[in-house]
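User: Working on a comparison across species. This one is DUF3575 domain-containing protein from Psychroflexus longus. Can you predict its structure so I can line it up against the others?
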Amino acid sequence: MGAWVYNESRLSNQFALRSQVGFDFRIEGVGRFEFAGPNDDIYGILHLSLEPRWYYNLEKRFNKGKSIDRNSGNFLSFYILGNFDDVSFTSNDRLRSIDQISFIPKWGIRRSLGKHFNYEAGIGFGYVRYINGTALNNQGGIFASGTKGNFTADIHLRIGFDL
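Assistant: Here's the predicted structure for DUF3575 domain-containing protein from Psychroflexus longus:
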């Protein structure tokens, strides 16, 4: 879960650059039927990303009479994401994140809902590079390691508001 602000700038008729800043959140210690109780730990980390996108079917959608407002179409992209523990907040000092940069080729769809809303869904698989030699152990703790990176996946579902 998270909250972000984004900008999608048109580079040409089919290409755009999406930039995004926000916070990814997680809650630890949540019981089966509870949400954010007094013993739960909340964690937030800065999320910075750039994503060049190719909307490959806008002309086809337009020729069929379908909406292409605000890039309503299918896209291929190269998602570059950075998360940095130095810019984070937590209710428990034992919670930390891993400084990392991810590189993920993705496929997705974007559609407009009315005048100001849109939704997106996407999936991709790529590589995450750990910065400063940090990695996770099996218990979720951070320790120095020789691991430089790993396979990663990204699935997103978003609802957006356009001004």
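For your comparison, note: The chain has one helix and nine strands.

User: Helpful, thanks.
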